[in-house]
Amino acid sequence: MRRPSPLVGLYVRLIAAVALALAVASTAEARAPYGWLGTDPAPAATLAERIAPPPGFTRTPAAEGSFAAWLRGLPMRAEGAPVLTHTGRPKWRQDVHAAVIDIDIGKRDLQQCADAIMRLRAEWLFSQRRDKEIAFDNTNGKRMRFASAKRKDHAGLRKYMDLVFAYAGTYSLERELKPIAADDIAIGDVFIKGGFPGHAVLVADLVENRETGEKRFLLLQSYMPAQDIHVLKNPKSTDGSPWYATPIGDQLVTPEWVFLRTALRRWP
Q: Which of 42, 53, 81, 238 has the maximal Cβ count within 10 Å?
């Protein structure tokens, strides 16, 4: 019986070594869903755990790994936490928020309204390893791509986002997003008024009453100066609920801005 060639054994060992290396690399490259948390302790609650649907409503379906599911899982600060600015001091108004997202602001006055929305979108894409899709236009229309950044880890993403914050805003983001009918509102949509100043808020959750078909939604915002991203109160609510009702009507009234119903936009 002929003995196997030594080259065969070498080939088998080589294949095994490559497979092991790929498995190790895959594990090393795995990304946490909320990369900014690092090794911090588990959050007090997620957005979905902290804010229950109104009576008679249930959350709309969201596919695993989707932006909608990711937003519902956002980590929250402790109940009753204040909104802080980038200086570490409380925002002058503490009457507009129902809860605070547990995410860093940075030390500079950069992560404002549209910036916070772009940050959340980029963080989700990063968690999904969709780095090539992380790109935003600056005010002059030039595309700024994370794929062009030197570092591809979370620290590199954070540095890239600061660059985006400095050169993009509501003016550029409004032009990137596509108009959507207010009646077709979905999680991840953005109410935005581009300008200097302008403002933008993000639809972070959506519930539906199956009997009536009515939908209600939650809004997130940052503002000026750069501050904690927070869940907005509904100033029209008589029971303190942060859920906004549909149909929206001609205007969407939030605590610090009024949007036209035509201001709703969606990611392309």
A: 53
